[in-house]
């Protein structure tokens, strides 16, 4: 790999953890500097578990840091040799953005500005950053292509992610290579407890109701974590000045089938509570991968059946502490 010293923001988050672990497992000459504020948006135990695994690697350095704090960011990182930033840290969650909008502006807007400005001031060659399929909003054209207009977000979270893409373009004008990745419903082991698949699994095992929105009439382009990591690594290794790519599975899954699979792998039926569509939710996501296949050579391999089987097996093996989250 061309880059030797990689800063990963949100290193104790779901995708940040898996990327850091992959880089450390596969590249002995790569050092990962990870920053995370270990906030309590969801139970910090999971972030601590992820981070403890990473701390077993000699080439991993962790700094507890909130990147929305400009002075703290500079003070902690100014003397580090960093030649690539993978910016995965963010305030996640569509629904929570309806309750606490300030957290999204602080982390996703100010925080991302700080990361991009740090790259400019300290002559970092390239930034790969996380965007989201939520930027497509309620677009009717299916599947979602990077060429589509994305001017109608239906949540503040989506608006901040679209703003990040526009902000990235202005920093590309300074000569920094900027690559944005629109993730489509990423799932897998060590995933986020606020995501539906995690909550469904936990509540089914506990014998609690699961909340099924829009009465189950929804579809999601679920993307397994290892496929997403492959896409990120390709975006790191290939040379682009400014691009945005979809990273999805391009196979939308009906919500009720998704629940049936979890029931099958847990060998337990769910108690379902059917509810109307929530504010901020979209009915369907579906990634057009034409551009990603051409330029990133991105080809997702893990089916929803295989991915959920792996997740459920992992959950069952770790149920003692996962059920407490």
Kindly summarize this structure in a few lines:
With 325 residues, this protein is an alpha/beta fold. The protein is built from 12 helices and 13 strands. The chain has helices spanning 14-26, 44-54, 70-77, 96-99, 101-121, 156-172, 196-206, 225-237, 255-266, 290-295, 304-317, 319-322; strands spanning 5-9, 31-36, 60-64, 84-87, 126-132, 177-183, 186-187, 209-213, 219-220, 223-224, 242-247, 253-254, 271-275.
Key traits:
325 residues; alpha/beta; Rossmann fold; seven-stranded parallel sheet; two-stranded parallel sheet; NAD-dependent epimerase/dehydratase; Epimerase_deHydtase; NAD
Describe the sheet with the most strands. Answer: 7 strands, parallel
The total count of helices amounts to: 12
Residue share in β-strands: 15-25%
Q: What is the CATH superfamily classification?
A: NAD(P)-binding Rossmann-like Domain
**Molecular shape:** globular
Radius of gyration from CA coordinates: 19 Å
Number of domains: 1
The total of beta strands comes to 13
Distance between the termini: 37 Å
- What is the N-to-C order of secondary-structure elements (H for helix, E for strand)? EHEHEHEHHEHEEHEEEHEEHEHHH
Supply the CATH class: Alpha Beta
Which structural class matches the secondary elements?
alpha/beta
Domain NAD-dependent epimerase/dehydratase: 6-248
Keywords: NAD
Protein name: NAD-dependent epimerase/dehydratase
InterPro entries: Epimerase_deHydtase, NAD(P)-bd_dom_sf
């Amino acid at each position: 790999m061309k880059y030797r010293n990689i800063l990963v923001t949100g290193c104790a988050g779901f995708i940040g953890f898996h990327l850091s672990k992959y880089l450390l497992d596969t590249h002995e000459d790569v050092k990962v500097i990870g920053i995370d504020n270990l906030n309590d948006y969801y139970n910090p135990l999971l972030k601590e578990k992820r981070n403890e695994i990473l701390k077993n690697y000699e080439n991993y350095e962790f700094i507890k840091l909130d990147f929305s704090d400009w002075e703290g960011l500079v003070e902690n990182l100014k003397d580090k040799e960093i030649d690539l930033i993978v910016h995965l840290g963010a305030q996640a969650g569509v629904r929570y953005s309806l309750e606490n909008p300030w957290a999204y502006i602080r982390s996703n807007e100010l925080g991302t500005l700080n990361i991009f400005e740090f790259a400019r001031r300290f002559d970092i060659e390239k930034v790969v950053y996380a965007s989201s399929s939520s930027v497509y909003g309620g677009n009717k054209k299916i599947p979602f292509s990077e060429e589509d207009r994305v001017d109608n977000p239906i949540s503040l979270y989506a608006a901040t992610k679209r703003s990040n893409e526009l902000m990235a373009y202005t920093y590309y004008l300074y000569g920094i290579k900027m690559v944005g990745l629109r993730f489509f419903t990423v799932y897998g082991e060590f995933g986020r407890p606020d995501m539906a698949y995690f909550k469904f699994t936990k509540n089914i095992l506990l014998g609690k109701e699961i909340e099924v929105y829009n009465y189950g009439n929804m579809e999601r382009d679920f993307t397994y974590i290892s496929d997403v990591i492959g896409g990120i690594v390709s975006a790191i290794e290939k040379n682009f000045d400014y691009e945005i790519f979809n990273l999805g599975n391009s196979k939308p899954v009906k919500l009720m089938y998704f629940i049936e699979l979890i029931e099958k792998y847990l060998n337990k039926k769910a108690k379902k509570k059917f509810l109307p569509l929530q504010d901020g939710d979209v009915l369907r996501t579906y990634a057009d991968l034409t551009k990603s296949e051409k330029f990133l050579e991105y080809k997702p391999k893990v089916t929803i059946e295989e991915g959920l089987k792996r997740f459920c097996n992992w959950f069952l093996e770790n149920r003692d502490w996962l059920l407490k989250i």
